[in-house]
Amino acid sequence: MKIKLVVDGKARKIDTKKSTIIDLAKSHDIVLSNYIVRVNGKIVPEDEKLKDGDVIELFKVISGG
Predict the structure, then answer these.
(1) What is the pLDDT of residues 32-57, one digit of tens each?
(2) What is the CA angle 25-19-6, rounded to 5?
(3) Is 25 among the domain residues?
(4) CATH number at residue 10
């Protein structure tokens, strides 16, 4: 399946057999606890199933005081 992955504003197209966001993140050494995940414009849980043509966006979580 082909998806678009956007991490920190950098987009790339990926051909993957991974079935969930967790699997995809592990295969690309992405620590999901550092990101909010959006698929096709909606915030989703990390165990969301991927579909062909999905656009996965990862937004870095920034906190401070």
Answers:
(1) 999 999 999 999 999 999 999 999 99
(2) 40
(3) yes
(4) 3.10.20.30
